[in-house]
Every structure is written in structure tokens, then in C-alpha cells.
């Protein structure tokens, strides 16, 4: 993960609420499975480690990341931010970006056509209005 990606994920995580709380029972197999399921659905999660947990927060973060296949974005005090990329969501994002790029290119082409004075949708609409006015005047 690059530093730019990490910075972007940190800024996104600022808006998130903690989804999980780890208490005195520390990590259980059920909590790992639940974290894995939520990471699959959300990609970016925030975990709160309660004060009654005796384990070190950094060690917990590494352990959770190892067991879930996620990456530790940041550990601040008793908060852990994890990220795991979902390939299906990544593919959807790429397709959406391609569609947006095609729309921008089409808009640029139309703007160039209008600047050049070539027949475009705008000039065709104007010529149709003129024809209709001529017919009405007769």
C-alpha cells in the first residue's frame, strides 16, 4: 500500500464509526470470522479496543490483519483501522471510472464540434427551428 493510498484511507476512516469492540475476552474465532465478513462487505473498518483488554493494541492489529488477510492502515491509541480490498468492488469501480471517462471524452468532442462550427446537435436543432419558422410564415 502506498503512502497516498494510506492517507486517503485514513481520511475516509475519520468519518467511520467503530464497528467492533474488543474487550477482556480479546480475540475469539467468532470475532475473527465476524471481522472477516464485515471486511468483505465494507473493505475499510474501524475497531475499538476497550480499556479492559489487557493485550497491546499494535499486537492485536497485526494479529487481526494476519488472520483476516487485511492490511493495518493505522493504529491510534485504542483504535485500529483495517483495509482489505474486495476484488468485485474494485472491478465495479474501474467500470464506473471508464464510463465517466467516456462521457467526458464525448462532451469534449461535442464542445470541439461546436467551436469548429461543424454540424452538431445544437446546429441541427437551430436549422430545424428555422425551417419550422419558414413554414409558419408561408
Give the tags.
single chain; 138 residues; alpha+beta; Translation Initiation Factor IF3
What does this structure look like?
It is rod-shaped, with a radius of gyration of 27 Å. The protein contains five helices and four strands; from the N terminus they run αβαβαββαα. It has a four-stranded mixed sheet with strand order 1-2-4-3, sandwiched between helices. The chain folds into two domains: 83 residues, Translation Initiation Factor IF3 (2-Layer Sandwich), CATH 3.30.110; 46 residues, no CATH class.
How many strand units? Answer: 4
Radius of gyration: 27 Å
Strand content: 5-15%
Report on the biggest sheet: 4 strands, mixed
CATH architectural category of the largest domain: 2-Layer Sandwich
Taken from the alpha-carbon principal axes, the silhouette is rod-shaped
- The unreliable regions are none
> Taking strands numbered 1, 2, ... along the chain, how are they ordered across the largest sheet?
1-2-4-3
Query: What is the count of distinct domains?
Result: 2
What distance lies between the first and last C-alpha atoms, to the nearest angstrom?
72 Å
CATH class of the largest domain: Alpha Beta
CATH superfamily of the largest domain: YhbY-like
Average pLDDT over all residues: 85
CATH topology of the largest domain: Translation Initiation Factor IF3
Helix content: 55-70%
Quaternary: single chain
| Total helical elements | 5
Taken in chain order, the helices and strands follow as HEHEHEEHH
Amino acid at each position: 500500500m502506498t503512502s497516498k493510498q494510506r492517507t486517503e484511507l485514513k481520511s475516509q476512516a475519520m468519518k467511520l464509526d467503530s464497528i467492533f469492540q474488543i474487550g477482556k475476552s480479546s480475540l475469539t474465532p467468532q470475532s475473527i470470522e465476524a471481522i472477516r465478513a464485515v471486511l468483505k462487505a465494507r473493505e475499510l473498518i474501524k475497531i475499538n479496543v476497550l480499556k479492559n483488554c489487557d493485550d497491546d493494541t499494535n499486537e492485536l492489529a497485526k494479529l487481526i490483519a494476519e488472520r483476516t488477510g487485511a492490511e493495518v492502515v493505522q493504529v491510534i491509541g485504542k483504535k485500529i483501522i483495517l483495509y482489505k480490498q474486495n476484488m468485485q468492488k474494485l472491478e465495479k469501480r474501474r467500470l464506473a471510472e471508464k464510463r465517466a471517462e467516456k462521457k467526458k471524452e464525448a462532451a469534449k468532442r461535442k464542445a470541439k464540434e461546436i467551436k469548429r462550427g461543424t454540424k452538431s446537435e445544437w446546429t441541427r436543432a437551430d436549422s430545424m427551428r428555422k425551417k419550422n419558422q419558414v413554414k409558419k410564415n408561408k
